[in-house]
């Protein structure tokens, strides 16, 4: 199983960008305490 992800954070960004396996993205999007949106160009 491949376990990798990417996190991009900067004080000038309005948000933190996360890229990773579908299970991670699904968990973030469905977490009740995290505000998350899927970027329109992400599949």
Description of the structure:
By secondary structure, the protein is an alpha+beta fold. The protein has one domain. The protein is 19% helix and 14% strand. Strand 1 (6-8) and strand 2 form a beta hairpin. It contains one helix and two strands; from the N terminus they run ββα. The chain is globular, with a radius of gyration of 11 Å. The relative contact order is 0.19. The chain has one helix at residues 22-29, and strands spanning 6-8, 17-19. Strands 1-2 form a two-stranded antiparallel sheet.
Distance between the termini: 20 Å
Determine the structural class based on helices, strands and strand pairing: alpha+beta
pLDDT average, as an integer?
Answer: 79
Strand content: 5-15%
Total helical elements: 1
Widest β-sheet, arrangement of strands: 1-2
Strand elements, count: 2
Radius of gyration: 11 Å
Assign a percent range to the helix content. 10-25%
Poorly predicted tracts of residues? none
Major beta sheet, specifics?
2 strands, antiparallel
TL;DR?
This protein is α+β, with helices and mostly antiparallel strands and 43 residues long. The chain has one helix at residues 22-29; strands at residues 6-8, 17-19. The protein has a two-stranded antiparallel sheet.
């Amino acid at each position: 199983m491949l376990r990798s992800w990417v996190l991009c954070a900067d004080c000038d960004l309005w948000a933190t960008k996360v890229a990773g396996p579908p299970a991670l993205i699904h968990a973030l999007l469905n977490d009740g305490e995290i505000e998350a949106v899927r970027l329109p160009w992400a599949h």
